[in-house]
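Archive entry. Fields below.
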Amino acid sequence: MDFRSDNVAGVAPEIMAALAKANEGTSASYGADDITARVERRLTEIFEHPLRAFPVVTGTSANSLALAVMTPPFGAIYCHEAAHIMVDECGAPEMYTGGAKLVPMAGKGAKITAADLDRALADAGIGEVHHVQPAAISLTQATELGTCYRAAEIEAIGEIAARYRLGLHMDGARFANALVHLGAKPKDITWKAGVRALSLGATKNGALAAEIVILFDPVLAETFAYRRKRAGHLISKMRFVSAQLDAYFIDDLWLRLARHANAMAKDLAAGLLSVPGMHLLHAVEANEIFAKLPAGILGGLRRAGFSFYDWPGAEPGTIRLVTSFATDPRHVAAFISTAKNLASAAA
Amino acid sequence: MDFRSDNVAGVAPEIMAALAKANEGTSASYGADDITARVERRLTEIFEHPLRAFPVVTGTSANSLALAVMTPPFGAIYCHEAAHIMVDECGAPEMYTGGAKLVPMAGKGAKITAADLDRALADAGIGEVHHVQPAAISLTQATELGTCYRAAEIEAIGEIAARYRLGLHMDGARFANALVHLGAKPKDITWKAGVRALSLGATKNGALAAEIVILFDPVLAETFAYRRKRAGHLISKMRFVSAQLDAYFIDDLWLRLARHANAMAKDLAAGLLSVPGMHLLHAVEANEIFAKLPAGILGGLRRAGFSFYDWPGAEPGTIRLVTSFATDPRHVAAFISTAKNLASAAA
Amino acid sequence: MDFRSDNVAGVAPEIMAALAKANEGTSASYGADDITARVERRLTEIFEHPLRAFPVVTGTSANSLALAVMTPPFGAIYCHEAAHIMVDECGAPEMYTGGAKLVPMAGKGAKITAADLDRALADAGIGEVHHVQPAAISLTQATELGTCYRAAEIEAIGEIAARYRLGLHMDGARFANALVHLGAKPKDITWKAGVRALSLGATKNGALAAEIVILFDPVLAETFAYRRKRAGHLISKMRFVSAQLDAYFIDDLWLRLARHANAMAKDLAAGLLSVPGMHLLHAVEANEIFAKLPAGILGGLRRAGFSFYDWPGAEPGTIRLVTSFATDPRHVAAFISTAKNLASAAA
Amino acid sequence: MDFRSDNVAGVAPEIMAALAKANEGTSASYGADDITARVERRLTEIFEHPLRAFPVVTGTSANSLALAVMTPPFGAIYCHEAAHIMVDECGAPEMYTGGAKLVPMAGKGAKITAADLDRALADAGIGEVHHVQPAAISLTQATELGTCYRAAEIEAIGEIAARYRLGLHMDGARFANALVHLGAKPKDITWKAGVRALSLGATKNGALAAEIVILFDPVLAETFAYRRKRAGHLISKMRFVSAQLDAYFIDDLWLRLARHANAMAKDLAAGLLSVPGMHLLHAVEANEIFAKLPAGILGGLRRAGFSFYDWPGAEPGTIRLVTSFATDPRHVAAFISTAKNLASAAA
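PREDICTED_STRUCTURE:
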């Protein structure tokens, strides 16, 4: 009964089957295979826009490579102060860009606003040689706090990116969860809103290790392949990464998996609302719940076999619960009932 | 009938089965799982030495990370001029080390000699601030030309590394093939001979995407984990990388797979010896054959459905043939008989 | 009547004379000359501690090199959010460290406190591979707002640096101004308080282009010379940089020059206090004044031939006035009387 | 009697006077002063071409910055194996480019040829993701061995650079010496021959510390200023660097200084031809002489008070003699006569 993260889950059966199927005969290596080409074609259809798509195996490399093609070494990348690229990648964007600076911004629900960005950029010293130069904005969709940017919010930021000629990147490690929650089309929250590079994740949503960087701007693609190789992220037996992505996008598997994860989170959140002393910290829009519960209940839940993380930097008693494509509804129900029982016993 | 590379092959059935088996339940992510720990323990036994072992998914990242923990930005890495790190990694070692310099050395059969190294180091300007400072030596085992360093050759180089206080790294993308050819114990051609860091490959020898960096010196391990994460090479669902390695080392699977690849190469080379006009360019000690054949025969082989690479930078008619764990003996036989027939027809 | 910065001033006559004197005969290049050695010896006496001293020509390179010998690429450097290294060096510390992250901290008067640092470090995720690892703390003395750290404040921070095993760096571009204000001995606010590396500036205080990095810890010096050369900061005719520093430290020239600059600032600030509508924003402890004045007075001052900067990011009407070793007391008096007259006229 | 290098000399009186003259009043810092602007204008006239010019204080930074605006991190820079950027800058180009690779080429007299370059580029794997991508060519004028490229030789290389769309950089640390030897106009051996970036040195030829990067292509200038600042090479009191350059180019001072240095070298070489057992290793075209002399004579010369360097990597008895703008003709005469006497005594 593991709510620690969506990456504690395994691999969706459809994706496992695709791996087995890809394991037939020999195949050109380093991405020159048919499956890799097919994935790019399918994404062109899904996003309804010409694009280049580059599979990798981690979200960190996807983000860093996407940012590196937008950001010179003397550049600045604007992101939320809780962004994965800011907090959880041990400086990978700095490594890949040759030492660019990430500029952390505050913002409710781990979202940055167009208005705040506009103010920050007005004070950034653009054109002054003493200061790093704004080069990119990075949004996380869904955010690190399980919230989602609306299309209009992204558009407003996209308009600023265009005005200042900045790259607009989206960290979509949980892009499918956001898409499903918003009921949006992929294009609505990406290129139509000004996004030029998307790190689209599959690993947290049922793949073994597969992410894909989608570049809506062909100029950005010019150096991408060299940078990926140079970073050690060009997988030799690429067909096995692409096969995961191929299965992921066939018959809307990615959306089905995300719908389950989101539904489990909503059910869990709804059930918890009836637990006395429980506070939800953020809107539950994707597959993450941030809740504050009495210490006694948390201890009891853990003793009952539930695992989850205390949230660092937050008030004591704040936990994160993450559901996934594989979350068993019975575990959700058990979590709720156990919490209620613990609360009753404590009362 | 694909002799282009050992990475055109798929995944060994035992490893595929291990992946399926690992896909049960949830598991701690980022390498905190049991399988990852088990692989490190097993390697300690196999190498008969304390060590730290870090799984990654590409040879390029394995090499670059191993070199980065040995080499400051102002350092120099001595390697053969044909080394993968020199020629085929698009500057990855430079990226990971923060701009160290690779010093290419000539040498027969893609091997460097202790004597040449000694001479080069004597002229390197050690301690002079104008020059990059020797920091590491990198050997490839088996080499890019399918030859193998003998234990004594490595020891002689290890002695120089010790004298100059340099790190000694081994690129073992085809380590198993070398081990099998030499009939050596793992320790004989690694730590006992002075090797401090080994990039041990599994991908070319039957894994989907799995390599492991083995550090025989605990000091080198101190910063490794941060560097791996920062490079985007810490796989979240690590158990699936480790499961491949786990299967690879159980019951000597790695050696069995390599033995087959090597045997296929030897059979192929032996058969080709009877083809008029054929010249072998290097000793066939692992799973690669470098041969020169008349253009007519090469064209005929390709028309007959055999695929293989012309070798860049060599004389016209020079090809590389690579066998793998999955090479079908019938393909080897067919290659030989086709070549012979083409030669007869041409005579 | 130029109060824009202390770097709009020229070169002190004593230093100019030293340059002329150094221009006799030939001399070993790249720092192997006698003057360079003498400067290091003199600094050992001035600081009453063994040390290594490396001349460079810019404060940015001094800071970046000092930080680079303390900070791995995956490291974090804690500094005030207004620090020169954070704001005004276009990412130089990131370049020199290979992409480390600067962590900006708030704090009154551009000073960070031990208590805030302690809290930040407790939450920094030390030992967790996902996060950059605290490596160094950088203080500016005097600060960017013209205030000075007391010895006890530095000691408290030094104690934290020791506890967390972090390097403690001091950006001393205006070190002499701080020293004079505090009436401290050099040792009191450096190594005795835990500082391990000091960027000691001379340029703003009368040199042509000369700064010196002082390392109180011999371990830090091991790679410094290579890093300096590699950054293009080893001056070939070094004697001319060292000659400036030599003159700077002889007969307390550096302190005399700083005393004048500080006195001019104090006089200017004192005089301004009598100008109606004027507000001082920070304590005037070195050679910088931050003041808010009515727009009409500022315009009038500029028309009268005074130059100074509006302070970016502050409220309208906020200006910075900087005095230097070369500030003419008559310019100070004229500034005050002009401001008073303008205020009277406006009343 | 110092023939070690041209950087053991001091500063030409005209340049020293210019420094004193620049030390009047205050001046805008960081290059916004009038002198800096004037130098750029004058260079536009001297080179008869629009250009951007950026003063720095070392040849290493000039070269590295010029290369960095031409070369992506995955790029390759082709240069002679004896080039200063290859051998003597401790990896600075690698640091500034973010880890590009320098490709060393052989060639007589430290010159590379168009034919060799063409062959190397044909084999470089352009467009293949596994290999670093050719980005720039760097020539040294005069070379490290005191020889000079003819305009036609540069043009032939420039034509290749154009064909492969590579940047063509010239390391002109001794550009004036070459110009004077060739009797060429500045434009003949720079932009007209395809050179897009020139590191023009003044330090070795009479300045205190002044070099200037000249970019003939405005696109290259777009990011230069940020890169210079970020590298710590934007001098705050820039007027004092520019004043050196200003004096350097007024009334052909640079050519007069170089003419003297070259004449001294020619006289010295001519005189040495009459010393039995002496061999000149390279044509004496600038201000460097590479000679082989019997050990006894070398020892005698040193005992007589002459200083010079043994040339590393060459046969025993090989020395380098460097003359400069400041070389005293009497020292040249004394060197020759002493050598002759020693040779006679030994006979």
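CURATOR_NOTE: Chain C touches chain D through 51 residues (CB under 8 Å).
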